[in-house]
Specification:
With 249 residues, the chain is mainly beta. The chain folds into two domains: 4-51, no CATH class; 69-241, Cytidine Deaminase, domain 2, CATH 3.40.140. The protein is 13% helix and 35% strand. It has helices at 69-86, 156-161, 194-197, 211-214; strands at 4-7, 22-27, 30-36, 41-45, 91-97, 102-106, 110-117, 120-123, 128-129, 140-147, 165-171, 178-185, 188-191, 217-222, 229-233. It has a six-stranded mixed sheet, with helices on one face. Strands 7, 8, 9, 14 and 15 form a five-stranded mixed sheet that branches. A hairpin with a 4-residue loop joins strand 3 and strand 4.
């Protein structure tokens, strides 16, 4: 059956039917067959099987290439450093050049909150950061990666905040890293096997992450019953990463 198909969207008006015209309406309530003749104007709900429609399932296939081993180890090294610094989370923004099929990390300014509890500082399982406003030429915002202190299962905050893009969660950073990777497309979440996005899924962290990245971590410390807080900036001494690269690598 070859008929004009019209989507009925909220707040829009359907174009009028011409005499002896039929069309299919796709609506929130199903598919309807609408007709106009000399004797009637009808709109009847249609069984999909009566239209000869074939079944279909949602899918998403990555065509972007893989994150190389050096980038992967740099990410892990940064996450390990952050965990040893404050025991909480850390994050990186993932960029991609579609023409060159290349990835690049951006390390944003980021902060974790810490509260004094039973004689020690305890960090929360939340990290605040912003995506870059300006991107290197040819690159687009592709997603992000962040560290989980415990299991790699996405939190309620993760699933609520994740926008379209690739979202990498790394966990068990003090041993053999584990991953949970999702690709969100048009609001739908697809699970991604680490082998599909990492060149070497089993690689281990670099011991020395970029110094400029380490300096972008801020720990906001709060003392109970006091309104003020203060921040500690991490520092890292490594001549190899002596220059500031604006957070890109």
């Amino acid at each position: 059956m070859k008929l004009e198909t019209v989507l009925k969207t909220e707040g829009s008006e359907l174009p009028p039917l011409k005499m002896h015209q039929s069309r299919l309406l796709v609506t929130a309530d199903g598919v309807f067959l609408e007709r106009l003749s000399d004797i009637l104007h009808s709109s009847t709900k249609v069984d999909p099987e009566a239209l000869g429609l074939a079944g279909h399932t949602q899918f998403c296939r990555l065509k972007c290439g893989k994150i190389n081993r050096t980038m992967h180890r740099t990410m892990l090294g940064f996450f390990k450093y952050a965990y040893e610094l404050h025991g909480g989370e850390a994050a990186l923004v993932l960029l991609h050049d579609p023409e060159q099929r290349q990835f690049r990390w951006y390390c944003p300014e980021q902060s974790v909150s810490a509260h004094w509890s039973f004689g020690r500082w305890v960090t929360s399982d939340y990290i605040a950061f912003q995506n870059p406003m300006l991107l290197p030429e040819g690159f687009v915002h592709f997603g992000d990666a962040h560290l989980h202190v415990g299991p790699v299962t996405p939190s309620a905050t993760d699933t609520h905040d994740d926008q379209d893009g690739l979202h990498i969660i790394a966990g068990r950073i003090s041993g053999i890293p584990e991953y949970h990777i999702d690709l969100v497309v048009d609001g739908q979440r697809f699970r991604v096997d680490p082998e599909l996005i990492f060149e070497d899924p089993g690689c281990l962290p670099f011991e020395q992450p970029p110094r400029s990245w380490c300096e972008r971590i801020r720990v906001e410390k709060y003392i109970p019953h006091q309104s003020r807080s203060w921040s500690d900036n991490s520092t890292y001494s490594d001549d190899q990463w002596d220059s500031d690269n604006g957070g890109y690598a």
